[in-house]
Amino acid sequence: MENAAALPFALRHVWIVLALPLLSFVLNGLWTCRKKESWSGPISTVLAGANWIFGTLCVWQWWKASAGLPGRSMVPWSFDWLTFGQLGTFRPLTAGIGALLDPISAMMVFVVATIAFFVHVYSIGYMREDPARGRFFPLLSLFAFAMLGLVLATNVFQMYVFWELVGVSSYQLIGFWYHKPSAVAASKKAFIVTRFADAFFLLGIVVLAWVVRSFDFSVLNSAAAAEALLRPVSFGFFEAPALPVAAALVFAGGWGKSAMFPLHIWLPDAMEGPTPVSSIIHSATMVVAGVFLSARMFPLFSAVPSVMGLIAFVGAFTAAFAAVVAIAQQDIKRILAFSTLSQIGYMLFALGAAAVCGGGVLVAGYSASMFHVFTHAFFKCLLFLVAGSVIHVAGNNMLSCMGGLRTKMPLTYLSALAATLAISGIPPFSGFWSKDEIVASAFQAGHPVLGTVGLLVGALTAFYMFRFFFLIFHGEARSDRSHAHEDRWMTFPIVCLAIPSLCAGILAKPLFESAFRPRLLPWVQAVEGTHAAFVPVAATLLALLGAVAAWFLYCGPKADVARALDAEHRPAWYRLVYRKFCIDEIWLFVVRRILFERVAAPIKWFDRKIVDGAMNLVGKSVVLAGWCVNALQNGSLATALAFAAGGFILVWLLAGNLFP
Amino acid sequence: MSSPLLLSAIWVVPLLAAFATLFLKRDDHLAVKLVHAVCHGGNLLLAISLLVSFLAETEGALPASGTVTQLHFAMDRIWIPALNIHYNVGVDGLSMLMILLTAMIIFAGVFASWGIRDRAREFFILLDLLVAGVYGTFMSFDLFALFLFYEVAVLPMYLLIGVWGTGRKEYSAMKLTLMLVAGSALLMGGILALYFGSHLQTFDLNVLSQYPFPRSFQRLFFPILFFGFGVLSAIFPFHTWSPDGHASAPTAVSMLHAGVLMKLGGYGILRVAMYVLPEGATEWFPWLILPIAVNVAYGPFVALRQRDLKYITAYSSVSHLGLVLLGLAVCTFTGIKGSAMQMISHGLLTGLFFALIGMIYGRTHTRNVDEMGGLMKRMPFLGVSFVLAGFAGLGLPGLSGFVAESTIFLGAFENPSAVVRGCTVVAILSIVTTAVYILRAANRMLHGPLPERFGTLTDAVWNERLAVIVLLIGLFGMGLFPGWIADALDGSVAPLFNNLVRAVVP
To answer: Could you tell me whether strands A239-241 and B72-80 are parallel, antiparallel, or unpaired per DSSP bridges?
Structure first.
């Protein structure tokens, strides 16, 4: 907040970047949603466009204003939202809402605002015939609002607030077509799986707040916090050192949001929502939140090699796992969903590997991870938009209805080619530069195994992405194409996004290498590695190998397309991959058979039969006692006298014994 | 008119409304409802204006460092000289907010019961009695008067459920009343013990709280007061009256009961048991937290297997009120403040839940979620409101539940004792099961294909919309702008907390 008045206009009023999408949500949600559906698209798109311009302006002015600041980090706007401790005491625990601008958040603001705008434009075309589009646009704006609030968070509490809002808006959008039971199930799954992870995140925040007495990232990422966190903290059942436990708990939130194995199950199902939603979830708003969180907490996390090692392992495993699963899928959105998992895995393992680097932190790994977040957003958004367009034409998600779309949709075809080349990591497309840096950083940090995994997954990526590409656009048309055309509103964003897919890598590379340096704790050493020269060559060759293999199998003269489209009459291993290694079934078993039927049902039985039964028993025994006594009051003198005599004797005996 | 009189007017107005209703014609439903809409609307405005002047009075006040609750709009008149019983009313931040909550719930409740046809006069008169008792309890600082109001609030419930209820109404009404009266019996004993044990011949809470009761006395009587009030907050294992009672109760009664009456339990524990017997509290809470943790963690699991919407909501109340008690039991400043916030938040959201359930039941004639589906299509207003209430219940930021729950969790973690810590961890992780049962209910009811027989249902009408909107304003108001509520509570929690700390560190 230092000398806020001196800041340029956009920075002083950086709250506008949150207010515009919120305005779009409120305006459309309360007004156009019911009566004027046709207005909601244009209104929210104009506001998203304004937000894109304003967001870019903010980033630009931040870049100029922050030159001299440590870590280029500044908080131009913030206010106290809620005080938890007692007012007037020494530094009560306070949660604020504000905007923290530094390289990673500025990059994300730009990415989110850009993607949100293009997705809004695309949605005008995509949702044109949907009667519920009046509900769609406000939710899309809410989604963008939540993600912008998340990336701008000045403190971990604010991040959690918007983190949950991201979760709930994705829940609403995935279940947008709520009359479809599959969409409802998918939305519930997404919310509950991420909520499961968020519970640990919340616990992590509570632990951090208790030890450090602050939520602010500037305090949490400081040496003082790390020192305070060295002491053990009790969890009732056991005691553990605070730092690794808190870091692991906080990361657990990212684990779920970024859909890392085995919590990845919600993401492939999330395609039940309209395709623009998948596009924004996979590129900018939801799944990168976990990566962003890890990057935001990186200074603190990097002091805990065990947690960073966990992140690296989980990321690398998910990258490989998802790439394998993607090879056998028949649903084009599912292929893309698993490719997202794989790419997010790359980002996380770059972060993790960077921090476990022989006693120091490899700067290049951190910047490579952020670089991949940046490039991935554009080409993945583009790929989903392409998928939406071809689904519009083919009327179905399945590869079996695609084929031969090249001639009908030339612009889409070329843009898809750019994005496919980008994600496959073929130079000079954007994905090559960032993925190359990730793999290279893994080798530099002294993790040849991780680096090799990265290289091999690169080959797999090229293979499944070209399979996707060839089976959609090449070959014979496998369904009716008489109405196939390119919608203007849908093609415009696709073509626009092809530009960053082509050149974002080469243009932004110097920027990421110079500006994206993690701020480290004083005792953590920054390591500048030397770039391994064989990595780009090997990566490119492997990617080409994957692409050529896909050509032979799915497009070349000897391709057997019918076999490629058949997932049932295949060997057992293929069917296992097609079924995604049955992870969903295992989860379903745990939840339904164990949690519902073995835990919740007995608890309910216990409550209704034992606890309530005991209460009823008390009631009944009182009634019974009353009935017994009642029987004595039958008006017979003999009974009354008998009891009187009996009572007298009893009292006499007792009194004799008690008071001798 | 001066503010102390205005404060007393808050509980007198409902009685005046009841009195006026006596003179209306038996079947003039509209007049009855209009009288109540005007009276309770006026009361709501009165509560708001009192809150505004309360905030103006406390603006910029130094944080309270004493151990005695500062009363605003206080009035103290001797009532029964022989026993030194006073009519001693006043408010602090907590009471003021609870009074406002009550005013909102009853206002919404009147509009939610707009369609009542059966003996409307008597129904509203009993409702007035109930709410007058609630108001009185929240503003009394004389234990005798407090207990009297408390009983006035609890007893009309029997008739309201027994006469206007549905299902097994006689059984439920009997069960609810008997269990609550058993709690009252404990309370009566506890209060008399305080009166005679102190040798001060006073029922004044502020005086009694400063009297150093011997440790053995506190050890004996704290659990009596705790369980006496706790029954009303559905503490495990004395919670089973709540699902049956709510399931049978008519809409407005469920709203008032879950929304306000159940808070009297937590309020009483804080205001009486912990305030007067601080040493007993600090000694007992490490053990009493165990049944409380059961409330929090076990309610959601039971709710998971329920099909009746009212049972689901009742068990969610069991869990949410468990959080109220958890915040008290951890004996930290933040925890107590969070618990006060949770009382308000839960009052609003469960009031909204029961209002919506009543409205939906009025259309579908079933409360079984398995028999519903796709209702969002026919009743978007009620559907969206139900989803919002659900989100508030599962602690979504922006709605009131999150603010309260996060405050409780942060406060609970400040208590380093192993048992408390363990219970806190369990409570935090239970937000997952809460999400599961709420989404399960909302999805089954609102989403999916619409059964044919619901094809002609209509959305909310004006009076229902008004009731829902009042409560939604509360949910959003607290969720988006929690700062002023937290600050208003600061001044009232501080003396209670200081008194508690004094017990630990003499």
So the answer is: unpaired
| A89: region left, alpha or beta (phi > 0 left; psi from -120 to 50 alpha) | beta
When mean pLDDT is compared across A501-505, A637-641, B292-296, the lowest value belongs to A637-641
Identify any residues that bridge with B368 across adjacent strands, giving them in sequence order. B308
Residue range A485-517, pLDDT digits in tens: 788 888 899 999 999 988 888 888 888 888 888
When scoring A18, A604, A606 by the number of chain B Cβ atoms within 10 A, the one with the most, hence best to mutate, is: A604
Lookup: tokens for A80: 């106290």
Chain B contact present for A236, CB below 8 A:
yes
Asked if the model's pLDDT at residue A3 lies above 80, the reply is no
Contact A356, A305 (CB under 8 A): yes
User: What is the C-alpha separation between B258 and B232, in angstroms, rounded?
Assistant: 10
Question: What pLDDT score does A462 carry?
Answer: 93
Three-class DSSP category at A143 = helix
Report residue A345's pLDDT band, with 50, 70 and 90 as the boundaries: very high
Share of chain A above pLDDT 90, in %: 36
Q: Which residues of B touch A168 (CB under 8 A)?
A: 391, 396
Would the CB atoms of A84 and B413 count as touching at under 8 Å? no
Extract long-range pairs of A79-84: CB within 8 Å, 24+ residues apart. A80/B483, A81/A158, A81/B482, A81/B483, A82/B403, A82/B407, A82/B482, A82/B483, A82/B486, A83/B483, A83/B486, A83/B487, A83/B490, A84/B334, A84/B337, A84/B338, A84/B407, A84/B410, A84/B411, A84/B486
Using CA atoms, how far apart are residues A573 and A328, in angstroms rounded to an integer?
10
Helix (H) or strand (E) holding B157: helix B156-164
Q: Is there a contact between B229 and B268 (Cβ–Cβ < 8 Å)?
A: yes
The ipTM estimated for the assembled molecules is: 0.93
**Cβ(A442)–Cβ(A365) under 8 Å?**
yes
Residue type at A93 in one-letter notation? L
Report CB contact under 8 Å: A184, B391: no
d(CA A169, CA A163): 10
Question: Looking at chain B, how many residues does it have?
Answer: 506
**Calculated CA dihedral for residues A503, A505, A508, A513, nearest 10 degrees:** -160
pLDDT digits (tens, 9 = 90+) for B243-254: 888 888 888 889
DSSP for B32-88 reads HHHHHHHHHHHHHHHHHHHHHHHHHHHTTPPPP-SSSPPPEEEEEEEEEGGGTEEEE
Identity of the residue numbered A212: V
The percent of residues above 90 in pLDDT, for chain B, comes to 41
Distance CA A50, CA B397 (A): 26
Q: Which residues contact A275 (CB under 8 A, 6 or more apart)?
A: A126, A333, A384, A385, A387, A388, A391
pLDDT tens by residue, B335-381: 999 999 999 999 999 999 999 999 998 888 888 888 888 888 888 89
The two tokens of residue B105 are: 């719930």
Whether the model pTM is above 0.90: yes
Contact A500, A421 (CB under 8 A): no
Residues 562-601 of A with CB under 8 A from B: 596, 599-601
A:B CB pairs within 8 Å: 161
Cβ burial B240-278 (10 Å sphere, 16+ → b, else e):
bbbbbbbbbbbbbbbbbbbbbbbbbbbbbbbbbbbbbbb
Residues A353 and A441 sit within 8 Å (Cβ to Cβ): yes
Query: B363, B353, B326: which is closest to B341 by C-alpha?
Result: B326
Are B482 and A81 in contact (CB < 8 Å)? yes
Say which residues have a Cβ less than 8 Å from residue B38's Cβ, sequence separation at least 6. Answer: none
What was the pLDDT predicted at A202? Answer: 94
d(Cα B336, Cα B355) in Å, to the nearest integer?
28
Cross-chain Cβ contact B428/A179 below 8 Å: no
Q: Say if the Cβ atoms of B410 and A209 lie within 8 Å.
A: yes
- Classify strands B85-91 and B72-80 as parallel, antiparallel or unpaired: antiparallel
CB spacing of A604 vs B446 below 8 angstroms:
no
